[in-house]
């Protein structure tokens, strides 16, 4: 059966009885993804750093989607302690997790460190989500057919990887370079997780998506500089809205035909706009040696291990 080429949110199946978590679900494509998951009946958790922005987003979602089962939970991916608190609270309240959409991120910011001492873009965009997925792994394993969807970027195609200096401790930091690296790490994590799931014989799936060129609050950190505000103002007038940008994530998360290891992005203009289709990741993203080493580094840095995979030979 041929896959739909113009897949839309209307193609999302009934999600009644499902549970979904969307990190960064208070704005941009994260909010649109959370809204559509909730519209189709999923109990949807908006995992957000800011209580104020999160509550405003939840109020808007409930106003737009009547009768929705959605709630707000605090999560700061730049804090391993916050990740652990979120996971503990979630697993105490929910016996299942059908969709974990690792969507939140920061983009093109000056060099700085998280509270755990990690460079901020790699620390937030990759290590935070690696730790979160690992902390939630038991409940994912307890949910048949669970999906983890990592939101990457076209920027992963041009990224430079240095696993000997993952966090730029030897220098060489650039704002765009670190962002691209963090998005390549998202891809390496996606494919390495899928390989480990398959080796362990686990009924769970790891997929990736990217939004193409979509209006998003992700660029908010860039708007502190006048020339960037002007450029972003023009850029945001010619690109697709967050509703279209969320579709690759939603297709990876809900399309019954989607499979672990697949990667979805927009169909048109070099994957910048359009409806979501299967797209190709870079060769670097599929490198199994780098994927295995990144996994081991991530375990070491975060202190989080995926115990359910170790017995299956995933190490």
Describe this structure in words.
The protein has 315 residues and is an alpha/beta fold. Residues 311-315 have low confidence and may be disordered. The chain has 11 helices and 8 strands. An 8-stranded mixed beta sheet has the order 3-2-1-4-5-6-7-8, with helices on both faces. The chain has helices at 28-39, 51-64, 80-93, 120-135, 137-141, 175-200, 226-238, 242-245, 247-254, 288-302, 307-310, and strands at residues 19-23, 43-48, 70-74, 99-102, 146-151, 204-209, 263-268, 273-278. It is globular. The protein has one domain (15-303): 3-Layer(aba) Sandwich (Rossmann fold), CATH 3.40.50.720.
Write the layout of secondary structure elements.
Blueprint: E1 19-23, H1 28-39, E2 43-48, H2 51-64, E3 70-74, H3 80-93, E4 99-102, H4 120-135, H5 137-141, E5 146-151, H6 175-200, E6 204-209, H7 226-238, H8 242-245, H9 247-254, E7 263-268, E8 273-278, H10 288-302, H11 307-310
Helix pairs in contact: 3-4, 4-6, 4-10, 6-10
Mean pLDDT score: 91
What's the architecture in CATH terms?
A: 3-Layer(aba) Sandwich
User: Going across the major beta sheet, what is the strand order?
Assistant: 3-2-1-4-5-6-7-8
The general outline is: globular
CATH fold-level topology: Rossmann fold
Strand-and-helix sequence, N→C? EHEHEHEHHEHEHHHEEHH
Number of strands: 8
For the record, the count of structural domains works out to 1
The major pleated sheet works out as:
8 strands, mixed
């Amino acid at each position: 059966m041929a896959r739909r080429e113009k897949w839309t949110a209307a193609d999302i199946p009934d999600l009644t009885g499902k549970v979904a978590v969307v990190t960064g679900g208070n704005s941009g494509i994260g909010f649109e993804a959370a809204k559509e998951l909730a519209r189709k009946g999923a109990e949807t958790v908006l995992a957000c750093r800011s209580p104020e922005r999160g509550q405003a987003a939840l109020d808007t979602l409930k106003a737009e989607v009547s009768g929705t089962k959605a709630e707000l939970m605090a999560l700061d991916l730049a804090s391993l302690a916050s990740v652990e608190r979120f996971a503990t609270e979630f697993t105490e309240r929910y016996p299942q997790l059908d969709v974990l959409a690792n969507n939140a991120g920061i983009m093109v910011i000056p060099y700085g460190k998280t509270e755990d001492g990690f460079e901020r873009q790699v620390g937030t965009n990759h290590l935070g989500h690696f730790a979160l997925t690992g902390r939630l792994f038991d409940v994912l394993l307890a949910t048949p057919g669970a999906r983890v969807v990592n939101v990457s970027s076209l920027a992963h195609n041009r990224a430079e990887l240095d696993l000997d200096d993952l966090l730029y401790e030897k220098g060489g930091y650039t704002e765009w370079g670190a962002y691209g690296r963090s998005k390549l790490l998202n891809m390496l994590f996606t494919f390495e997780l899928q390989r480990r799931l398959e080796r362990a014989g686990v009924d769970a799936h790891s997929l990736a998506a990217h939004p193409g060129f979509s209006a998003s609050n992700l660029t908010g950190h860039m708007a502190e500089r006048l020339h960037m505000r002007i450029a972003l103002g023009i850029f945001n007038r010619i690109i697709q809205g967050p509703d279209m940008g969320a579709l690759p994530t939603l297709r990876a998360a809900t399309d019954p035909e989607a499979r672990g290891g697949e990667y979805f992005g927009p169909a048109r203009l070099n994957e910048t706009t359009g409806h979501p289709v299967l797209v190709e990741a870079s060769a670097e993203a599929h490198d199994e040696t780098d994927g295995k080493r990144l996994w081991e580094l991530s375990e070491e840095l975060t202190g989080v291990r995926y115990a359910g995979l170790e017995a299956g030979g995933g190490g």
